[in-house]
Amino acid sequence: MVVDINSFIGDPNNKDRFYNPATIIANEDFYAGANVEEFLQEIKDKRVTGGSGGLKIGPLSLSGSAKVTKEKNERYSYSNKYSFARVDVIKRIKRLYLDVVDANDLIPYLSTAFINNLNKMTPEQFVEEYGTHVLLDISIGGRLQFNYRSVITETDNNIEKKKIVEAGAKTSIGIFGASGNGSHETSEVKNLNKKNSNWDVQISYHGGTNSGLNYSLTSTEGLTSIQFNKTQWEESINDKNAALVDINWNKTFPIYEFISDVAKKQQIKKAVENYLEGKKLQTMSLIPMYTLYDMNVYDCLYTTKIRI
Q: How far are the Cα atoms of 2, 7, 101, 134, 204 from residue 114, in angstroms, in the given order?
């Protein structure tokens, strides 16, 4: 804990600066890209709209929310061979919000453990323990997350690839029973989805009675019908089992903004920058190899160019 919230709201001067209204909202958020760079950039554009005290968060630093594979060879699994999509089926039940525009307003209420650990821990240990940002405006509830990846060989056009991989993700949530708009039933989505090959989808629950449950499906086994009751899952979400489902990045402060010692502040800032840099996904550019057969001589030629 960085800030002792009870101390903050217990101060008569702050009695109207903490809000926690019930906010019942259900929606589906889509992200897609022809490759991992475009995919993560779309997540960044839609979710990280600003804030962060000037600290730049690169699109490849969002690995915590963007990882779609458990493969050990990360560079290959995020190579340009694959296109990516993600769907978040979200049920928000409450918003938690501090009306603070200056980090200095919270410094008098820093937790004792935060202050003590600042002097005990190395900068790296400190960032690992407390993270990179203090969040002042969040929503909690339930999130059913579909991370979808496929190989698309019918086109090299990135715009078309994005449409195709997004159709695959829509089909996944539709068959799973999580879609609320039935978009997977349209002829356009059905036709586009057929162009996905070697796909896999990771399904994870965050919040509700099934929180922590994961499914993994591939094109080899197909999209089997899993017994999922969306209404039942949404009704199971409450304050006690809710998960973080949304962050207003315009209402965040880098963790080092709460450190008054100039030298220590610079050390933690450097550790934060290194931490974010270390979270970048490692990618690889692959070149397709074609096999051309000559049936007259029963021989073949390997080439990276389809026209020779």
A: 6, 14, 21, 12, 32
Measured between alpha carbons, how far is 200 from 77 in angstroms, rounded to an integer?
11
CA dist., res. 38 & res. 224, Å (int): 29
Q: Please report how many Cα atoms fall inside a 13 Å half-sphere around the Cα of residue 76, on the Cβ side.
A: 4
For residue 188, the Cα-to-chain-centroid distance in whole angstroms is: 27
* Maximum Cα interatomic distance, the chain, rounded to a whole number of Å: 90
Q: What is the pLDDT of residues 120-144, one digit of tens each?
A: 999 999 999 999 999 999 999 999 9
Tokens of 211: 């929180």
Contacts of 244 (CB under 8 A, 6+ apart): 138, 139, 140, 206
Write out the H or E segment, with its range, that includes residue 192.
Answer: helix 187-193
* Contact by Cβ (8 Å): 87, 148: yes
Give me the residue spans of the domains in the chain: 5-303
How buried is 244 (Cβ within 10 angstroms: 0-12 exposed, 13-18 middle, 19+ buried)? middle
N residues, the chain: 308
58-81 tens-digit pLDDT? 444 444 444 555 554 455 577 788
**Residue 117 CA: distances (Å) to CA of 6, 130, 179, 190, 268:** 20, 10, 45, 55, 12
Give residue 283's pLDDT. Answer: 66
| Global confidence as pTM | 0.80
Helix (H) or strand (E) holding 243: strand 243-247
Instruction: Report the SS3 class of residue 273.
Output: helix
CA distance 126 to 131: 8
Q: Which residue has the tokens 């938690």?
A: 96
In 3-state terms the chain splits into helix, strand, coil percentages (rounded to 5) of 40, 25, 35
